[in-house]
């Protein structure tokens, strides 16, 4: 009779190791949620996140179909794969929600954000701010003798990098739109 050999400390074959293998790693996902454009729709979607303690890193919303009365909410959130799946399932059950797309999972997507940066500066710092703005293809949309307002569009990482470089040059204020995203290709 063959004996089953279980190594000491191994829980691989233990009857007590019933917990499935869940990942604890945090992932960032971009979700596109199409909702009926009606009062309270956004509040219900946001209420799901706040009520369950989920964080929203970025949020944009706008009407995308005037005749169909549909709006698109783009949400960037972070969580374990299980939490992300739970968020998508719960979003799909909310009454005004007509579609939920996980752009991170669905395939390649284009993500863009707009940022406005007010930078104080004179002398060499002013020249350096203009030089960096040119490299990042940022536009000067307002200028005084003491400051600039730069407009920049791009991936969120590009916006972050521009902010990091402007801080030591006299960054005064930042306004960001949040991520707008679409999947690539014909679908």
Automatic annotation (TrEMBL):
Stated name of the protein: Acetolactate synthase small subunit
Natural source organism: Shimia litoralis
Gene Ontology MF: a single term: acetolactate synthase activity
GO cellular component, one term: cytosol
Purpose: Catalyzes the conversion of 2 pyruvate molecules into acetolactate in the first common step of the biosynthetic pathway of the branched-amino acids such as leucine, isoleucine, and valine.
EC number(s) stated in the UniProt entry for this protein: 2.2.1.6
GO biological process, one term: isoleucine biosynthetic process
Domain ACT: 30-108
Subunit structure, interactors included: Dimer of large and small chains.
CDD domains to which the protein is assigned, alphabetical: ACT_AHAS
InterPro entries in the record: Acetalactate_synth_ssu, Acetolactate_synth/TF_NikR_C, Acetolactate_synth_ssu_C, ACT-like_dom_sf, ACT_dom, AHAS_ACT, AHAS_small-like_ACT
Catalyzed reactions per annotation: 2 pyruvate + H(+) = (2S)-2-acetolactate + CO2
Pathway: Amino-acid biosynthesis; L-valine biosynthesis; L-valine from pyruvate: step 1/4; Amino-acid biosynthesis; L-isoleucine biosynthesis; L-isoleucine from 2-oxobutanoate: step 1/4
Protein family according to the UniProt entry: Belongs to the acetolactate synthase small subunit family.
Keywords: Amino-acid biosynthesis, Branched-chain amino acid biosynthesis, Transferase
